[in-house]
Structure formats: C-alpha cells, structure tokens
Amino acid sequence: MADPSRIEADYLIETGFDPRAAAEAMAGEQSSGTFLPVPGETAALKARAAARVEAIAVLETIAAPSLPGARLPADGGAIRRAFVTLSWPLDNLGPSLPNLVATVAGNLFELGQFSGLRLRDLRLPAAFAAANPGPRFGIEGTRRLAGVFARPLIGTIVKPSVGLSPAETASLVRTLCRAGIDFIKDDELQADGPHCPFAERVRAVMTVIEDEAARSGKKVMFAFNLTGEVDEMRRRHDLVRESGGTAVMASLNSVGVAGFLALSRHSALPLHAHRNGWGALSRHPLLGWSYVAWQKIWRLAGADHLHVNGLANKFSESDESVIASARACLTPLFEAAPALAMPVFSSGQTVHQVPATWAALGSADLIFAAGGGVMAHPGGPAEGVAALRAAWDCAMAGTPLAAAARTRPALAAALEMAR
Amino acid sequence: MADPSRIEADYLIETGFDPRAAAEAMAGEQSSGTFLPVPGETAALKARAAARVEAIAVLETIAAPSLPGARLPADGGAIRRAFVTLSWPLDNLGPSLPNLVATVAGNLFELGQFSGLRLRDLRLPAAFAAANPGPRFGIEGTRRLAGVFARPLIGTIVKPSVGLSPAETASLVRTLCRAGIDFIKDDELQADGPHCPFAERVRAVMTVIEDEAARSGKKVMFAFNLTGEVDEMRRRHDLVRESGGTAVMASLNSVGVAGFLALSRHSALPLHAHRNGWGALSRHPLLGWSYVAWQKIWRLAGADHLHVNGLANKFSESDESVIASARACLTPLFEAAPALAMPVFSSGQTVHQVPATWAALGSADLIFAAGGGVMAHPGGPAEGVAALRAAWDCAMAGTPLAAAARTRPALAAALEMAR
Fold first, then answer.
1. Which pTM value belongs to this model?
2. Domains of chain B by residue range
3. Class of domain B138-416 (CATH, top level)
4. Is 0.90 exceeded by the ipTM?
5. Residue B43: what pLDDT?
6. Can you give the pLDDT at residue A74?
7. Which residues of B touch A371 (CB under 8 A)?
8. How many CB atoms lie within 10 A of CB A379?
9. 8 Å CB contact between A32 and A41
10. Does the CB of A230 have a partner CB in chain B at under 8 Å?
11. What is the CATH number of domain B6-131?
12. Do B107 and A315 make contact, defined as CB atoms within 8 angstroms?
C-alpha cells in the first residue's frame, strides 16, 4: 500500500461512460464532491479531504448492462468493466468501522453511471487494528478452550433448527457429547423465542456439557445464539460465561457493525459469527461486497469464527468462492495484528468434501460443521463423528478415503451415504 | 392477515424447479426443516414451529436465470417466477427485530434452487409494536420541534460532504439559517473524523443555531451525524441534547438493527435515518429487499425520518420506486400504532421536481432536501430557499410554477437553473 495513512478500496465497476470519469465520480461522491459546484470546495479542502483514483484497469466490453437503472451517455458508448482502486485520507473519518462502511460502500451502489459496482477488497491503515477489538480468541484461543489441536474442530448444528424445547436440546447435546463432538452451535433461527427461552436453554445445555466434561474430561464448545438487542446480548453473554459456557454466536447481518462491536467490547468468550443474509449482499457478481472485503470489517470488530459455507454446498456458491473466503479469514490483516478468524465450513458437509477442503486450503485451522453428516450416519452420531475425524486424519496424511475405509467401518458407512 | 399470531413475508422468486416445491424448501430452510431427515423433527414439533406456504402465484416463464449459481433440475424444466407468501409462528422468535431479519431474510438468498429471490413485504403481529420503540417523534414531533406546519420542511445538506472544519461548518449554517432553511443535515461521510470532531462541530453549530433562533424566533433543526459505536452514539446524542440540538442522524447500514435500537432506546431526539449502502441490498430487482419491507424494520426500531431518494434523482432508482418508498413510510404499520416516519426526499432535488412530487404523493409530510438547489441559486441561498418554498406553495395550490414565477423572481431564477 502506497500511503499507510490512507484507506484503499478496490472495486469492479461496469459503466457506459468513460471508466476514468466514472471512477472520478465515485471518488467525488464519497468525499468532498457535490453534484453542483458549491463555494466551499476549495483547493485546500480538496487536498485535505478528496478521495483519489489510485488505479484503473479497463477490462472487457459487454453487450448489455448487468444491472437495470443505469444511465447511458447520449452518444451510446460501449459498456465496459474496469477494476478501480480509490483511496481516502484516514482523517476524513478516523478508524471507525461504521463510518468506514459508509465511506467505502455508502451511496456508491446507487450511482446512475454504473450498471455494476462491487467492492472487492480493502486495505486499511494500522490505526484500525489499534482502535478496534479484533478477535480476542481467534484460532489459538478457540483450540485452547475446545482442547483440540492440529486438526479441525468437528462441529454440528442443533437440528431441527427451531422447535426443540430446552430439555430436548439438552438431550440432543448429551448424545452429541457422548458421540465425541468438539463443537455444537445453535441454529441461527433459534435465539430466545418462547418455545425455547435462551436462559433455560443455556442452563439445560451447560448442565449436560459440564456433566459430560466431568465424566470424559472433554468440554464441548457450544456457541449459544444470543442474537438480539445490545443489552440482551450482553446479558445473555454474561449468563453463558457464568454457566461455564465457552462460546456465543451472533448473526452479523441481524445485529450490524455497531451492534456487534458493542457485544465484542463486552465479551470474554469466543464470538461465533454467522453470516446469514450474506447472499443479499453478494449473490450478484456485479453488485455488493466480496467476502474478502466484508470479512475484514467483522474480524476487526471481533469475530473469532466466521462462516464461509463449504465445498459442494447446498447453496448457490462456487467452491472457488468458498475457498477464497476461507483463505481470506486465514490471511493476516496487519503484520503486527494478524487478527485471524477461524473459518467455519458448513452446509451439507460430509466426509465426501474433506479431502478437497484440505487440498484446497492446506490448513486444519477451521471448524468443520456437519448436520446430517453427523446425525444421519447409519451407525449413529458417534460413528458420524468418528467418520469425520477419520476423513480428516486420512486427508491430512495423504491417504485416500476409500483405501482407509477398508479398516474403518464408520468411514466406510459414511462414504456410502447419499451426498 | 389471516392469523394475527403469525409473521407473514411476501417474496418474488425465480426457480427452475416446481415453484411450490421451491417455496416449501424456503419454508423448511427457515424453520424446522433439515437437508437430511433427523430424528427430532416430529409431527408435534412441525405443528409448533414449521413455516407455512400461505400463497403462491406463478408468473411468467423466462429465458435465462437472473442470478448465477442456481441449480437446475436434471430434466431442464422452465425457469419461472412466482409470488410466494410464507408465514411463521411468532413464538419461533418472539417480537425481536434482529431475529426477525434472520428469519425472513437469512439464508434464503443463497439457496441453490433460486436464480432470484427478493423480499417484497412483511406483515407482523402487533406484538412487534409493543416490544419495539417505534418513532418517538415521527411527523408531528418533527413539525413541533422545527416549527413547520402544513407544508414540507425545506432542508439542505452541509456541502462539501467532508473537509470543512467545525468553524467553517458553523459559518455555512449561519448563512443557511439566515436564508430561512427549516432543516440541515450533516453529510453521511462526516461523523467524527479528526478534520471535524463531532463535539467541536456540535458546539460551533449549536451556538449559531441558538443565536439565530434568538434573533429570528426560528430554531433550525440540524441532524448531526453521530454514526459510530453504540457508546459513542449515546454520548454524542447526549451532547447534542445538552447543546440544545433537536435531531441526530445515523447511517442504518453502518450501525445495523441492534446498533440502531441501542441508540433509539436511549434517544430523546428525532432520529434521522440515512439509508446509504441501501443499493447493495436492492439494486437488482430479483435479489435482496424491497424498500417497502425494509423500512418497516427501521420504523419499528425508531426511525423518525427515512431517506427515500427523490424524483428525477441523480441515482439509478426509478420515480415509481421512490414514490412507493415514500408512500410506505406514510402508511400505518398497525391501527393502534401507525409508527409513521417522515420521508426524506434528496439527491439532485430542485424546484423542478416539486409539482410531480406533490402530485404523486399527495402529502406534505416530508422533508425536501436540496443541496445545489439551495446553495447554487444565482441569488444566493435565501433565494434558493424562497424558490423551494414558493414551488411547494404553488404545487399545493395547484398553480403551475411557470405562471407563478412571473411575480416571484426567486422561483423564476430557480426554474432557469440547469436541472
């Protein structure tokens, strides 16, 4: 990064106008520019506050605009795509994450010059690391609390997503503890509804987890979904901590950056960050945010675990995108403050995806969460967990699963399950 | 609404699968369903917690999928659009806005069955009105504090967006007060950066506003942009209130639902809600949120003023969409708790848009914010404000602007300005 006192953001744009002029309009809209000239925008003010176009690379010409509503020039020029990098003086806003969002991703998406505009990446001054909490636990803290080292945490989700009572949830958790699971999370639909009040669920589940830990020596990490208002989240966090719990979960797009920061600054537990709603921000390739840019905001805000979907998932995301997301979580933000988050693989994950996940990521610093992959194993959840553990052992040792399955019946049975 | 204890949401979907089966998959994903059958999803649990498909209307067949990444059936069926209504038991989540977002707009956008999925509207049990703050001031409270009745508030934005010092901002505010403006807002890029610290700006601006109010009897409403972390926003709100200020502003997509609720529950001032970033959630017509659904969340959370863009705006939004948004803000949420918010028209607004805005909306309960339309008037800002006031007087009286301009030189000059 050229100037460490400036914020840089990379975009993919699509426009019928001259790409450089369009990029200058972006810089103007997001800093000192105005639609009509006003007396106050002096040369000194521009030098102090204007955003700059740092780089532009024009890409292909396309036949039709990707998004509706764009204005086109009167002379009907070609519609072109381009990579654009803008920069801002840090002093326009200071190292404030909510204001960073307004600056790099505010009105831009609505600008009439563009039939496509997507935020691809961000580079931030180190002041952001100093001013924001970052992950307090990250990979090492999570491993220490879960007692799992040098391999992925094998996780699962309480299913059905919603509808179980606290006692039914606790009963399922006992089964999962006895099955040897490392990590369990609430579904994002289960928070504090009258069917399953948060406090009752925490007490019932933690009684089981402490009981099973006393029996086996292994304390399963359970991420309780405390998504709600700020004061509710703080109270719920305190209850989990007082009950001996070792993680909490929040839905990022439900609480927002300021909401999550308020939780994070209060928290003494790993924060499991669920990305539901993410598709609205990202599903169109010419609109919204790339995960690479987006996850930087949440890591700085304190996310210890970040959902990245999974290979061959049940959703619409490509494997390439999933791996890029997971790699991003494992790439240091700053040399002095890496702020790594543990990527969470989920969505239809089974033993089948394990070798490719390892091959593509080359890291075991992840949570591998399987719902049906654990619960629907024909030998029961203990065999489901054993199969996933075996699949990771084999993948990391370079042994093909089919070969290893000859001596490992749990893995063999898992390989025969429908994908 | 059929059952007042259920939450209802309307969607536009696009799928290559049978639309009814796809709608059932949505309902399953967002309630008790699982990818693979699990033992816990009993008939009793389904009866208690399952989401239901309440209505489905199949629309046109289209040639190509709108969004990439969708799975298609092996037999290559037609890609169809449909309107779908789902419902959920309130007791799955309770009247919690963050959890409502996760329920009606969570993982749905990523589901592989869909090449388009957009949330169109929401109908909520009255429990949401009881449990959430709603607008404390709304239209009547805003009019009372601004001293403006039976016509729109004429507003403007501090421009340049960012770069002015507190003293320069206050100097501009003095000019605007003397020009007869009703309402001023910070730009969304100006919050608490080192160039223009929030506290210094508030003190400098409120000194001017109080001074001018003592002189003229008219106290201009200034919405200070306090966007930031929760504790910062609360402190900044308190400073504005102690300094005699009558409004604060936050960027909704920067602070999030839990962040905004934390401000709102603390606030004793009208909350001016800026929607920057909205384009990422809405610009593609087959993805994300309609404003009609989205604004309901923020009104319940406490927004008193909500940005809706403006007619013939500088962005990509159609006039039809702008008017639908403004009408939504002025439509009661519940009979006993209308929770109306004042729509804020902005973006390249001048006298030219006034007659059509009045004709389309039929209400003067709005803030009409013009930047260049005030500051760039050839006769200066006082004539800019006079022209906008005259344009609204004429429009509401049914007088064509051109006719009225013969005796009103400020309006005549404004009509001659470039659009």
1. 0.97
2. 6-131, 138-416
3. alpha beta
4. yes
5. 87
6. 81
7. 34-36, 38
8. 13
9. yes
10. yes
11. 3.30.70.150
12. yes
